[in-house]
Amino acid sequence: MKTVFKSQVQNSRQWINHKLQLAICLWWAGIFIPFIIIAGEINFTATVDRTTVGLGETFTLNVSVNGENISGVPAPKLPDLPDFNILGRSSSQSTSISFINGRMSQQTTITFIYTLSPKKIGKFTIGPCRIDYQGKTYETQPIEIEVVKTATQATPSPSPAPPRPSAYSEGGVMLIAVPNKKEAYVGEQINVEFYLYTQYNLDVNGISKMPNFSGFWYETIYDPDHLLYQKKTYNGKLYYVALIKTVALFPVTSGNLTIDPMELSVTVVKPPRDFFDIFGTAENLNIASKPISINVLPLPQENKPEDFCGGVGRFSLDAKVDRDTSKQGEPVNLIVRLSGTGNIKLIEKPVIPQIPNLKILEPEVKENIDKSTGKLKGTKEFRFPLIPQADGEYLIPEITVSYFDPAKKTYERLHSEKLRFIATGVIQVKIPVDAGGFKILGSDIRYIKPNKDRLKKNTNDFIKFLFLFYPFSIILIITAFLYQRHQVKLSKDRAYARRFMSGKVFKRRFQEASEYLKKKDQKNFYSSLSKAILGYIGDRFNLDTGALTIEQLKQELLKRQLDPEHLDQIFDIIRKCDTYAYSPLTDTDSSMEDLFKRTKKLMEGL
């Protein structure tokens, strides 16, 4: 009987231990399962706000990436757009979080916004946009755009009415738009100033609606952080007046164009109505300026020169080469600089005549714009790399550029001097073509395989273990919480995600350069090494390296208090990589090895 009872007790203990283990496992599952977020496929789409556009008008291309737990999404690669001008770009991000069956679902949408303007009338296709994310390539559907002489504007849907101003504020608070001219040529600068007039004490909440400036390219000239009021008399009444904003408009089409109203949100303190109303009351108002009509004259078509660069204003031209000799195919930079006042940002690159045995690459463009005087002025520099293909003396004929002077109402032509340089020791190099397919760069990652023989059950000390288990579980819960917060930040904060992944991405790209070094593939080695450096800098500091010149990128890094000498060494490597990657110059294996080691050391210290 005792033996039977003892056996029953042992069985009961085993049953209790089994149930306790099962309960603990379920408890841990309940803790960690909600924190597991699995990244799935992304949705990649492209849309436009309209498919019929008038010549000279603008439209918006929205490229959106949507998915669960997406992080570190790069900017999409746009197709070639020879029939459109890209006037501006921006981005926005939104995130929605929901809990379904105990699992957190987080959907993030990142939208890249591009403002485009057509160059001519006709039917055109915006090709697929592409994005590379987590080893996969996604493409959007092509979009058909019809460009007509004058687009038929769709009737906008009615928007909610703004708060109606009370009788005391009519005429007491106004927003007035003042253009400096009401007639201009296409491309000529028009300044519009928006003034706030008030007879009451008020707080400015901000601009609630900006004009879309349809038919114009615009640049903000003045946007103050704090308003400065002055006393002025308007229609026989005294007002306090403050300049809210100044924009420079450049018409891109001719005709009678309208500048839409700007809307401003303010809170007005209403004066006390009687003795008992000590402080008065506040009222929110939405005030708007009146629309402005601008007569835009077309540029004269008679005697319009073929070398017209699109410039409207007054400019000067300067051209030079950065060296007069080229050894062993070393590139020579042809620097063409346009300086002056006008629509300098819209000036197109000058045409360089074709020269036998001389390869002319696409220019690097630099802009230096000054808006302090209220007029856009500055310089636009085009740096054309010239790569000689044979020995000899190269003569660059004079470069001509024409612009339109609205003050004189005539086209003016600028001429540069003839330039020359001598090339010696040019080496004819046949660039090897890699006929191979895809290769696995590394296979050094193995899964951890636990040893089943070493996993032993110990039920005797299980109850004692529970007393030590709870403090440890609290630590794990805190760790899980921090990990979850880190995952959410990766999804919502693109800069944080790029910085977090920068080291891992750099190692992969650096490994690719190492493989090319082993193969003695000079062209691909220098190209991949340059991409690795620029990619790491862009990810680490959240910079669009593709949209910045080397000098602009250097200035951005100097703002972050980085060592100037250290940066000089890094950018010297980038310049050398670009030189050897796009010219017939050859380098020794030992020099490539030294450059590889020096790059690794410099990037570790960045």
TrEMBL record:
Keyword Oxidoreductase: no
Spans through the membrane: 20-40, 462-483
InterPro entries: BatD (IPR025738)
Keywords for this protein: Membrane, Transmembrane, Transmembrane helix
The protein, known as: Protein BatD
